[in-house]
Design a protein that fits this description.
heterotrimer; A: 176 residues; 7 helices; 38% helix; disordered N terminus; C: 758 residues; alpha/beta; seven-stranded mixed beta sheet; 23 helices; globular; disordered C terminus; binds flavin mononucleotide; binds iron/sulfur cluster; binds FE2/S2 (inorganic) cluster
Chain lengths: 176, 435, 758
C-alpha cells in the first residue's frame, strides 16, 4: 500500500465565504434533527446534518461546510475536524452511484475478490476512482454487517447481498 | 440465510418470520408492550433487581453484567439521565442487531423505555451506524407509531412517567461502537474514546449519568420483565443467563442468525449439524467465534472438545464469546491472509488518539504487505508478536488489544501457515522461521 | 487541590505529596521524573501518548501517571524492565513515521522526543518499512509546519482552545492519517504562536526564525516583553549581536506567563537589528533643513547650549515604553536641569486608578484562580493577552464567573458568563450605578440595559465565594478609574479577597506613573515650553510645531523626529539593563541581550549626558543598577528594592502601593454625576465583534519592521502554494506577487490510506 500524504485534501480548498442554500423543506428537516438535542447541545446534530448536506450536494463541499458552521454556530474547522474523522463523508466529489464493496474477512473469503475484479474491469477504474462520465465511484469499505450474506456491496445506501458476477451485472445495468 | 432458534423456543427471534412483525399492531398482537405496562407498575429498584437476577450480561461484546451497570447510576443526581442504545454493530462477523432492528424494532424500544423508567431517565438515543440508513428509517417509523399510541412522550400509558427516544446516525467509524467514543460522536465530535473513570453511568452524555447498552441487551429486557429474572436466567446457565444470538458466516452451508440457550453444547455439533456443516464439505480449518476481536481457534480446539457456547465455555476453549459473531473458515483459506485482512481493518478503524494503536497498526499492516508480496523474513514472526505485545494493555481503549489478539492467536494456533510465508525467499536463503 | 499531605511510595521510597496531586508531578518533584509528551500541567489531561506508563500496586495493567491522582498509601513503580520495555515501545512507535532529520530540524537540540530517545541510548531501528510521507508547508506567515514530525500529543490544539479560546487549529482525519491543521489548511487566528511554543517536536515552527541558526548556538537572555503591560517574561535568543528569536520555553525562562506569549512579544522583534535604526546623533542646523550625522560631543554641546538659552521653558516628555531607570532620569532632568514640567505620553493614562487603590493589585496567578472576575471596558484579548488567557482559563478550567461590561461584544464575551452590553460612552453611568453609594435610578436607562442586568451583576459580585478581581480598561474616565479603585474595597468579604487589575496599554505604563507621579499630559507641557526633550515619539507630533528647539531620543526616524533639531540614537530594550513594572505591580528586570547597536545608548544615559553638560550632576555611576538604587531610595513603593532582589523571574516582586479604605471620593463621584448628566438618552449599541487581531496585528513603528506583520495587517491572505513562504508569494500589501505560481506544487492528495478508501 503506497504511503499516503497525510496532508488533507481539504488543504487545497480555497475557503470561500459562499454559503450553500437549502429549500425550506430541507431546513425544516435539519431543524427536526437539531430539536432532538438539548438547546445548548446543538453540536450533537453535526453528523446528521453533514449526512443531509452530503445527500443534497453529493459531497461535503465548502459552501456546505460554511452553511453548517453558521447554522450550528461553529468554526469551519470544528466542522472539518468532525467530518474528516468519519469514513462515510466524501471530502471530494463522487459518482452518481457510489459502489462500496465490503473487503472484510467474511466477504473476502466468500468471493469478494472476483466481484471487485469484475466491477473494476467492467468500469475500467481502480478502487477509489470515478468513471469518466461521473456515473460510478468504486470504494473498498470495511464490514457492513452482511457477513451472513457475503459477498456484498452497498450502492448509495442500498444493500446488495449474496453477490454473484451475474447478479452484479443485473444490478449495475439497472443503474440510471 | 437462516434465522432460527435451536435448543429453545425463539425468544429474541420470536417475530422474525411473522409478517409485519416490525409494526406496532403486530407487535402488540403478539404480546408487545405488556412488559412495559407491568414495569410501570413496579418499583424501579425491583426492575433493576429482576435484571440482576436474570444474570444478563451485555451483548455488545464486553459482557458486563447489565443489572450491575444499571445500579451504578447515581439515584440522587440533579442532572438529566440518558439511555443510549448502541446500535453501531460494526464488529466484523457480527450482524444480529441488524435483524432485530429490521424485523422487531419495538422489542428494543420497549426495553429502552423500561430501562429509562427504572433509571429515571426522560431521554433516550439510538446510535446507529450510518450505513444502516434503512434501519434508521424503520426505527423512526416505529418511534412515530409509539408517540401516536402514547407509548412514548408524556404520561406513557397514562402513568406519571414521560420519556422520549430519538435516532442518531453515525457516519462510518467502528470505534464509535466503544461506548465513550459513541458518546463523543453523539455530541458531534470526533469519535475518540474518553478517560474512564468517570464511567458513563456517572458522567456520560453531556457529562450526565448515561447507560449505554447493546441492541440485543435491550431486547432481552422485556422478556426478563415478562417471565421474571430467575426464569429467564434458567434458560441459560448460572453465570450467563438467557439465550444468545449468534451470527454465523463463512464456509458453512447455512450461515445466518441463530438463537441458542447459553451453555449450548456443543460448538462442533452447532457448526457441523445445525449450520448444515462445511460448505462443499471441505475440512474445517479455523473459527473466530466471537467477532473479529477475539482469539482465532484451530479445528483441534473444537472438534471432539465439547466446547459449550457461553462466556465460560469459550474462554476455557481458548477464545471468547465477544459478540457471538462466528466466522468459519475451511482449508482453502490462508491464515496469514485472513490475519492481514483483519489487521487492515483495525488500522483503518484506529481512531488515532493513542500512540501504540495508531502507529502499531500502521506498522503491522506494512509488515503484512511486505510478507504477502514475498518479502517475508524469518524474524518477522517474532517482530509481529513483539509489536502486538507493545500494543496490548498499553493502548487507551480496548481496540488496541483487539488489534493484537487476532495476530497473537493466529501465530500461536497456525505456526505452519506463517512458516510458509516467512520462509519464502527470506532473503533468498529460506532459513527456518523461528515461529 | 487540597493541601492535605498524604504518603505515597515511589520505587520503595515513601514520600509526602499533596492529596489529589497528579502522580507524574509527584514523581518529578521526587526526582523520579517520567518521560511524557501529551501531558502539560496547564492543560486538560489527554493520556494519548502512553509514554508515562507506570505500575501501581493492586491495579491491573500499566497506568498512565498523567491521569492518576495520588491517594494515601499508593505504591508506585516507575522503573522496572516491564516499564522500560513499554516506554521504549512507545518511543519506537513514535519514530515509526517520524523522519530522522534532527540535523536539519529547527528544534534539533530542543526537541523533547529527541531527548527521551537519546536518554536511552542504544535504540535499535527495527522499523524498515516505507515511512508515510508529507511535505513541509506553511499554516500562516509565521507558523511553519512539518506534519511528518508530529506525534499528535495535541498540546497545540488544547492550547488553542483552552488558552486562546480560538479553536483555530484542530486534528483532522483518522488513525495514522491524523493531521493537525485547519479547514483549508490556512490559520486565521491571532497568531499567538503558543502552539509552536508547546510543540515538543519540530512540527510547528517559528516562521520568522526558520532555518536561521541552530538553537544551541544562541545565547539566551531572560528579559521582559516590550509590548504589553502584562510584563511577560521571555528569552531572547541572540548570537554575535543579532537577535534571532524570542521564546518563552521553560527550559530557558520561568516567568509569570509560563510558556505563554502573544504574536507581538514572540514575533515582532525584527525592529531590533533593523537597518533603519538611527545610527548616530543627527543635527538639523536650520529649520526645514536635513538631519546631518554628527558626533555625540557636537550634539550634546549644542543641546546644552540651546536648552540654556530657553532656560525656564524647557519641557520634558517621556514615552511609557522606557525603562523605570530612564523615566526616573528624565524626571530628575526635568526638575534639576531643565527646571520645567514633565509629561508621560500614554494613550491610556491610568494614574487615577493607581493613585486610589482601596484593595491590592491582583497578580496574574490571582486572576487564574479567582472566583469572580469583573471586566469593565478594555479589550485584554488584544492588549493584555496574558490577562485574557488567565481569565479565560479561570472560567473554562476552574468554573469562575466572568462578567464582561463593554460597549462592544468583544471576543472575550464568548468566554464570559455574563455580558453587560452598554451603549457607547456610558461607562461612567455604569460605574456610578455599580459603585455609587446608591444606584443611580435612571443609570440603567442611560446604559441601554434593563436594571435586572445590573442587579444580576451586583448579585454575582456580592455572592462571590473566593477572590473577586475587578479589571478596568484604560479608556475609562479618570473619575471612573478613581471610583472603581477607591471603592472596590467595600466588596471585601470573609469568603475571599477583592483585588484590582488595571489594563494600561504600554509595557511600562505603571512604572511611568510610579516614576513621574505628578506628570502632566504631552499637550499641556508642549504648550508651556519653547524647547523640549522628547524620549520616544508622540501620539500627536504636531504638538512640536514651531518650537524653538526640539530634541528627540529615538530608535527610528518618525513623524516626531521630523520636528527634531537634534535626534539622539537610543538603544532598544534588547540592548539595555533596567526594569519594567507591569499591570500587577511586578517590578521585573530588563536585561541586555546584545550591545547597543551602532552609536546608540540607553535613554537614561543619554539624558544624563545632557544634564551633565548643563552642569547638573545626577550623581550616577554609569550603571543601570546604580540608577535603580537611587530611584528605589526616592520612590516609596519601591523602597528597599535592588537588582539582586529581582533576579529570579519565577517569583516576581510586587511594588508596595498604599492601599487605603474609605478614601474621600466625593470629588470623583460628583465628577461622574456631571459626566452622566451630560450623557444624552441611550443611543445606538455597537453590535459588531471586532476581528481577532485587529489591534495585535496593527502596524506600528516597531511591529512594521517584521515583514510578516504586513501580511497579517492586510488580512492574512491564503497563498496559492502552501509549500512556499507566503512572503515569497505576496507583496507586503497582501496582493499576490506575479511569479509563475500556476504550476506550483499541489499540496495533499489523499485523505485515507485504505486502498480506494472513501
Ligand atoms: C472497539 C470497540 C467496538 C465496540 N463496538 C460495539 C458495537 O458495535 N456495538 C455494541 O453494542 N457494543 C460495542 N462495543 C462495546 C461497548 O463499548 C459497550 O461495552 C457496550 O455497548 C455496552 O453495552 P452492553 O453492556 O449491553 O454490551 C465495542 C467496544 C469496543 C472496545
Ligand atoms: S486504542 Fe487508542 S488509537 Fe486505538 S481506537 Fe482506542 S484510543 Fe483510538
Ligand atoms: S503523558 Fe501520560 S499519556 Fe501522554
Amino acid at each position: 500500500m503506497a504511503a499516503a500524504t497525510p496532508t488533507s485534501y481539504t488543504d487545497k480548498v480555497i475557503v470561500s465565504d459562499e454559503v450553500a442554500e437549502f429549500s425550506p423543506a430541507i431546513v425544516d428537516e435539519m431543524k427536526m434533527h437539531v430539536a432532538k438535542y438539548p438547546a445548548d447541545r446543538t453540536r450533537s446534530a453535526l453528523i446528521p446534518l453533514l449526512m443531509l448536506v452530503q445527500r443534497e450536494r453529493g459531497w461535503i463541499d465548502n459552501p456546505g461546510v460554511n452553511f453548517l458552521a453558521e447554522f450550528l454556530n461553529l468554526e469551519v474547522t470544528d466542522v472539518w475536524e468532525t467530518a474528516t474523522f468519519y469514513s462515510m463523508f466524501n471530502l471530494r466529489p463522487v459518482g452518481r452511484h457510489h459502489i462500496q464493496i465490503c473487503k472484510t474477512l467474511s466477504c473476502r473469503i466468500m468471493g469478494e475478490p472476483e466481484i471487485t475484479e469484475h466491477i473494476c474491469s467492467k468500469l475500467g477504474i481502480h478502487p477509489g476512482e470515478t468513471t469518466e462520465d461521473g456515473k460510478f465511484t468504486v470504494s473498498m469499505v470495511e464490514c457492513l454487517g452482511s457477513c451472513g450474506t457475503a459477498p456484498m456491496m452497498q450502492i448509495g445506501f442500498d444493500y446488495h447481498e449474496d453477490l454473484t458476477v451475474e447478479k452484479v451485472d443485473k444490478i449495475m445495468d439497472a443503474c440510471p | 440465510m437462516e434465522i432460527k432458534a435451536i435448543g429453545c423456543e425463539p425468544l429474541q427471534l420470536k417475530r422474525m418470520h411473522i409478517e409485519n412483525g416490525h409494526t406496532l399492531k403486530v407487535y402488540q398482537d403478539t404480546g408487545g408492550y405488556v412488559s412495559l405496562k407491568k414495569a410501570l407498575g413496579m418499583a424501579p429498584d425491583a426492575i433493576i433487581q429482576e435484571v440482576k437476577d436474570s444474570a444478563l450480561r451485555g451483548r455488545g461484546g464486553a459482557g458486563f453484567p447489565t443489572g450491575m451497570k444499571w445500579s451504578f447510576v447515581p439515584k440522587d443526581s440533579p442532572k438529566a439521565k440518558y439511555i443510549v442504545c448502541n446500535a453501531d454493530e460494526s464488529e466484523p462477523g457480527s450482524f444480529k442487531d441488524r435483524y432485530l432492528m429490521e424485523r422487531d424494532p419495538h422489542s428494543m424500544i420497549e426495553g429502552m423505555i423500561i430501562a429509562a423508567y427504572a433509571l429515571g431517565s426522560q431521554t433516550g438515543y439510538i446510535y446507529t451506524r450510518g450505513e444502516y440508513k434503512y434501519l434508521i428509517d424503520i426505527m423512526d417509523a416505529a418511534l412515530a407509531e409509539c408517540r401516536e399510541a402514547g407509548i412514548l412522550g408524556k404520561n406513557i400509558f397514562g402513568s406519571e412517567f414521560s420519556c422520549n427516544i430519538h435516532t442518531h446516525t453515525g457516519a462510518g467509524a467502528y470505534i464509535c461502537g466503544e461506548e465513550t467514543a459513541l458518546l463523543s460522536s453523539l455530541e458531534g465530535f470526533r469519535g475518540h474514546p474518553r478517560l474512564k473513570p468517570p464511567f458513563p453511568a456517572v458522567e456520560g452524555l453531556y457529562a450526565s449519568p448515561t447507560i449505554v447498552n447493546n441492541v440485543e441487551t435491550f431486547t432481552s429486557v422485556p422478556q426478563i420483565i415478562e417471565m421474571g429474572g430467575i426464569a429467564w436466567r434458567d434458560l441459560g446457565t448460572e453465570k450467563s443467563g438467557g439465550t444468545k444470538l449468534w451470527s454465523i458466516s463463512g464456509h458453512v452451508k447455512k450461515p445466518g442468525v441463530y438463537e441458542l440457550p447459553m451453555g449450548y453444547a456443543d460448538m462442533e455439533k452447532f457448526i457441523m449439524e445445525d449450520c448444515g456443516g462445511m460448505l462443499r464439505n471441505n475440512k474445517l480449518k479455523a473459527v473466530i467465534p466471537g467477532g473479529s476481536s477475539v482469539y482465532i481457534m484451530n479445528s483441534g480446539q473444537i472438534l471432539g472438545k465439547n466446547v459449550t457456547l457461553d462466556y465460560e465455555g469459550l474462554v476455557e476453549a481458548g477464545s471468547m464469546l465477544g459478540t457471538g459473531g462466528m466466522m468459519v473458515m475451511d482449508e482453502t483459506v490462508d491464515i496469514m491472509e485472513t490475519t492481514k485482512n483483519l489487521t487492515e481493518f483495525y488500522k483503518h478503524e484506529s481512531c488515532g488518539w493513542c500512540t501504540p494503536c495508531r502507529e502499531g497498526t500502521d506498522w503491522l499492516v506494512k509488515i503484512f504487505n511486505r510478507i504477502s508480496t514475498g518479502g517475508g523474513r524469518p524474524e518477522d514472526a517474532q517482530l509481529l508478536l513483539d509489536i502486538c505485545d507493545n500494543i496490548e494493555g498499553k493502548s487507551f481503549c480496548p481496540l488496541g488489544d483487539a488489534a493484537a489478539w487476532p495476530i497473537q492467536s493466529a501465530i500461536k494456533q497456525f505456526p505452519e501457515e506463517f512458516k510458509k510465508w516467512l520462509n519464502v525467499k527470506a532473503n533468498g536463503n529460506g532459513v527456518e522461521a523461528n515461529v | 487541590m487540597s493541601t492535605e499531605l498524604i504518603k505515597v511510595t515511589i520505587n520503595g521510597q515513601e514520600v509526602e505529596a499533596e492529596k489529589g496531586a497528579v502522580l507524574i508531578d509527584v514523581c518529578k518533584d521526587n526526582a523520579e521524573s517520567i518521560p511524557s509528551f501529551c501531558y502539560y500541567k496547564d492543560l486538560e489531561p489527554q493520556a494519548s501518548c502512553r509514554m508515562c506508563l507506570v505500575r501501581i500496586d493492586k491495579m491491573p495493567k500499566l497506568q498512565t501517571s498523567c491521569t492518576i491522582k495520588v491517594t494515601d498509601g499508593m505504591a508506585v513503580t516507575t522503573r522496572s524492565p516491564e516499564i522500560e520495555k513499554a516506554q521504549r515501545a512507545m518511543g519506537e512507535f513514535l519514530l515509526v513515521n517520524h523522519p530522522l532529520d534532527c540535523p536539519v530540524c529547527d528544534r534539533g537540540g530542543e526537541c523533547e522526543l529527541q531527548e527521551v530517545i537519546f536518554d536511552w541510548g542504544d535504540v535499535e531501528e527495527r522499523f524498515n518499512e516505507p515511512k508515510n510521507k508529507a511535505p513541509e508547508k506553511y499554516l500562516s506567515p509565521i507558523v511553519a509546519n512539518d506534519p511528518q514530525r508530529c506525534i499528535l500529543c495535541k498540546r497545540c490544539t488544547r492550547v488553542c482552545s483552552e488558552w486562546m479560546g480560538e479553536d483555530a487549529i484542530e486534528a483532522g482525519n483518522r488513525g495514522s492519517n491524523t493531521v493537525i491543521g485547519t479547514y483549508g489548511g490556512w490559520l486565521n487566528c491571532s497568531q499567538c504562536g503558543n502552539c509552536i511554543e508547546v510543540c515538543p517536536t519540530g512540527t510547528l515552527l517559528d516562521g520568522v526564525y526558520r532555518h536561521e541558526t541552530r538553537p544551541w548556538e544562541l545565547d539566551q537572555t531572560i528579559t521582559t516583553d516590550v509590548y504589553s503591560s502584562d510584563g511577560m517574561q521571555l528569552s531572547i535568543g541572540s548570537r554575535s549581536g543579532l537577535v534571532h528569536r524570542i521564546v518563552a520555553r521553560d527550559r530557558y525562562v520561568n516567568g509569570l506567563n509560563g510558556e505563554f506569549l502573544d504574536v507581538k512579544a514572540r514575533f515582532a522583534h525584527e525592529f531590533i537589528n533593523h537597518k533603519d535604526r538611527i545610527k548616530t546623533p543627527l543635527i538639523r542646523y536650520s529649520k526645514g533643513g536635513k538631519l546631518i550625522p554628527a558626533t555625540w560631543d557636537q550634539a550634546i554641546e549644542l543641546i546644552a547650549k540651546r536648552f540654556k538659552e530657553n532656560e525656564g521653558s524647557v519641557g520634558t516628555i517621556a514615552s511609557p515604553r522606557l525603562t523605570n531607570e530612564s523615566l526616573f532620569t528624565l524626571g530628575r532632568f526635568a526638575s534639576e536641569a531643565a527646571k520645567g514640567p514633565v509629561a508621560v505620553d500614554d494613550r491610556g493614562d491610568m494614574s487615577a486608578f493607581v493613585a486610589n487603590l482601596s484593595a491590592p493589585l491582583a497578580t496574574h496567578n490571582d486572576i487564574r484562580y479567582a472566583a469572580t472576575i469583573l471586566l469593565i471596558g478594555g479589550e485584554p484579548e488584544e492588549e493584555q493577552t496574558y490577562t485574557a488567557k488567565q481569565a479565560r482559563q479561570a472560567v473554562r478550567n476552574s468554573g469562575a464567573k466572568l462578567i464582561v461590561v463593554n460597549e462592544r461584544p468583544i471576543n472575550l464575551v464568548r468566554n464570559a458568563t455574563q455580558f453587560v452590553h452598554i451603549v457607547a460612552g456610558s461607562y461612567d453611568a455604569f460605574v456610578l450605578a455599580l459603585f455609587g453609594d446608591l444606584a443611580d435610578p435612571d443609570a440603567a436607562k442611560k446604559l441601554g440595559i434593563d436594571a435586572a442586568n445590573l442587579t444580576a451583576c451586583r448579585k454575582a459580585i456580592e455572592q462571590t465565594n473566593g477572590d473577586l478581581v475587578i479589571m478596568a480598561g484604560c479608556e475609562l474616565s479618570p473619575e471612573a478609574q478613581a471610583v472603581i479603585a477607591g471603592s472596590a474595597g467595600n466588596f471585601a468579604s470573609d469568603s475571599g479577597r477583592v483585588l484590582l487589575h488595571p489594563l494600561p496599554l504600554y509595557n511600562n505604563s505603571v512604572g511611568a506613573i510610579d516614576m513621574l507621579p505628578n506628570a502632566g499630559t504631552a499637550a499641556t507641557v508642549a504648550v508651556k515650553s519653547s524647547a523640549l526633550l522628547v524620549a520616544g515619539s508622540l501620539q500627536n507630533p504636531d504638538l512640536l510645531q514651531n518650537k524653538d528647539f526640539v530634541v528627540v531620543q529615538e530608535l527610528f526616524e518618525t513623524e516626531t523626529t521630523a520636528y527634531a533639531d537634534v535626534v539622539l540614537p537610543a538603544a532598544s530594550f534588547a540592548e539595555v539593563d533596567g526594569t519594567f513594572t507591569n499591570n500587577a505591580g511586578n517590578v521585573q528586570r530588563v536585561r541586555k541581550a546584545i550591545e547597543p547597536l551602532n552609536q546608540s545608548k540607553p535613554d537614561w544615559m543619554v539624558t544624563n549626558l545632557i544634564a551633565r553638560e548643563m552642569v547638573v550632576d545626577l550623581g550616577y555611576d554609569f550603571s543601570a543598577s546604580g540608577v535603580f538604587k537611587k530611584l528605589a531610595e526616592s520612590v516609596t513603593a519601591y523602597e528597599g528594592l535592588r537588582y539582586p532582589a529581582l533576579k529570579d523571574e519565577s517569583n516576581p516582586v510586587q511594588a508596595k502601593y498604599p492601599v487605603e479604605q474609605g478614601r474621600d471620593l466625593s470629588a470623583a463621584i460628583s465628577g461622574l454625576r456631571k459626566n452622566v448628566e451630560a450623557l444624552g438618552e441611550a443611543g445606538e449599541k455597537n453590535n459588531e465583534t471586532p476581528r481577532v487581531g485587529h489591534k495585535l496585528h496593527r502596524l506600528t513603528t516597531m511591529t512594521s519592521k517584521t515583514a510578516q506583520f504586513h501580511l497579517l495587517a492586510n488580512g492574512n491572505p491564503k497563498p496559492e502554494n502552501l509549500l512556499l513562504a507566503p512572503l515569497e508569494q505576496f507583496e507586503p500589501n497582501g496582493s499576490p506577487k506575479s511569479i509563475g505560481l500556476a504550476d506550483a506544487v499541489a499540496v495533499g492528495v489523499s485523505d485515507r490510506t485504505n486502498p480506494g478508501g472513501r
